[in-house]
Design goal:
Elements (H helix, E strand, L loop, with lengths): L2 H11 L6 H39 L5 E5 L5 E2 L3 H6 L5 E16 L2 E10 L3 H5 L5 E4 L4 E2 L2 E7 H7 L9 E6 L8 E12 L3 H6 E5 H8 L5 E2 L1 E6 L5 H14 L6 E4 L1 H4 L1 H39 L1 H9 L4 H37 L19 H26 L1
Parallel strand pairs: 4-10, 7-9
Antiparallel strand pairs: 1-12, 1-13, 2-11, 3-4, 3-8, 3-12, 5-9, 6-7, 7-10, 8-9
Helix pairs in contact: 1-12, 2-10, 2-12, 2-13, 10-12, 10-13, 12-13
């Protein structure tokens, strides 16, 4: 067995006495154990919330969205745009017209966001799975209908079985805003998607949206692209970028992937997770300083042993490695035990839901998702800090 490691282990686990040095070492190991356990558990909970939020936002989100780089709208008849969809990778391309409008329902009024889509949108995007009432029907014969966000419907006191109509208003741009374009629709469904849409959104037929806004028959605000195989997203994104560049239209249109569509949300979640990691890791560093004290006292206590080692031919470097390894073992053992306990707690939480979430949420217990990278980063980080702190008292005594 490696001699410095053997002696360091004997010093660490010696049963001769339980003096203050042993107590400080135990406290240091327990502190590192608790810190590493907390890191694993908290990072796993963040991972769980991260996955739930991503799945919630991405459930019916398009793989790509094409918008105009300048202005609010563009024509889908343009040769360059048509060139984008010559690939067979897309199962559905949805033209979308979106704008703020004024609406009234009975004696109630509100500012809302209309989302004009075609008749296939509900089934192809999957948003019809989120209906709280009614169905996703935008045209019934020649009569246009609307699917309204659940909170907007509650604000308007709107139900699908009522016969009252929705009246939509938007300024007529051709008249200089002195007149209003109007449209009359009937509610066919109430839908619950995300907070923003639920509060002020409603789906309407795209033909009605274009007429209300004064758009041409091929004019849209965006195109939503849905892939046949989401696993091809990276390849298709590169091909789209090449097509845009080849057609000399890279500055005319913006193509956003799923991450870019919710970039602010993802950056915020990453920042919060990183901040929590730094705080907990800083606590572990402070706890590890105890190792410095215990090693300093151990070196003083074992001076006679050091003289003996040197007398029998041990080099100064070998003696130093003994004490460095002992200090390092405290960190490694604390980290290993803490990570194992953290993983066990995560497993119990995932399987049995030991801690429930207070309030009314879409889930009733704290979600956990253990990632191998978190375990590696935690253990490696603590090992490095522990080694550096173990070197300090030894280098001072040399």
């Amino acid at each position: 067995m490696h001699l410095p490691f053997f002696i360091a282990k004997r010093y660490l686990f010696s049963k001769k006495s339980h003096n203050v040095i042993n107590i400080i070492s135990i406290i240091s190991a327990i502190g590192i154990c608790i810190g590493s356990m907390a890191l694993i558990v908290i990072l796993s909970v963040y991972n769980g919330f991260d996955s739930i939020i991503k799945s919630f936002y991405e459930k019916h989100q398009p793989d790509f969205v094409v918008t105009a780089a300048r202005g609010k709208s563009f024509s889908t008849d343009e040769r360059q745009i048509l060139h984008l969809f010559e690939t067979d990778d897309f199962r559905y391309v949805a033209p979308v017209v979106e704008e703020y409008i004024f609406l009234s329902y009975g004696d109630r009024e509100s500012i809302a966001t209309i989302v004009g889509v075609d008749s296939l949108y509900g089934a192809e995007s999957g948003v019809d799975e989120e209906l709280a009432e009614g169905d996703f029907s935008l045209m019934r014969g020649e009569i246009p209908h609307a699917v309204v966000g659940v909170e907007l419907a509650a604000q308007l006191r709107l139900r699908t079985r009522f016969l009252e109509s929705l009246e939509l208003y938007f300024p007529d741009t051709e008249s200089g805003g002195m007149a209003l374009n109007t449209a009359t629709l009937y509610p066919s469904g109430i839908i619950s998607m995300d907070k923003e849409f639920d509060q002020n959104g409603l789906f309407v037929p795209i033909s009605i949206a274009r007429s209300l806004l004064g758009y041409a028959p091929s004019e849209v605000n965006s195109l939503e692209l849905y892939l046949k195989d989401p696993g091809d997203a990276n390849r298709v994104e590169k091909e789209l970028a090449e097509l845009l560049e080849r057609a000399d239209m890279h500055g005319g249109y913006v193509v956003k992937n799923r991450y870019e569509q919710n970039e602010t949300l993802y950056k915020m979640m990453r920042s919060e997770r990183f901040a929590v990691f730094l705080i907990l890791f800083f606590v572990i560093i402070i706890i590890s300083v105890n190792i410095f004290g215990s090693l300093s006292m151990l070196i003083i206590d074992k001076r006679s042993d050091m003289e003996t080692y040197r007398a029998i031919g041990a080099s100064r470097k070998l003696v130093s490695r003994i004490f460095v390894l002992q200090g390092w073992l405290i960190s490694l053992i604390g980290a290993a035990v803490g990570i194992i306990i953290g993983l066990l707690l995560c497993y119990l939480q995932k399987e049995y839901g030991l801690i429930s979430l207070p309030g009314n949420y879409i889930i009733n217990q704290y979600p956990v998702e253990v990632r191998f990278t978190d375990v590696i980063i935690t253990f490696t980080g603590i090992a490095i800090i522990g080694y550096l702190i173990a070197i300090l008292p030894v280098s001072r005594k040399e």
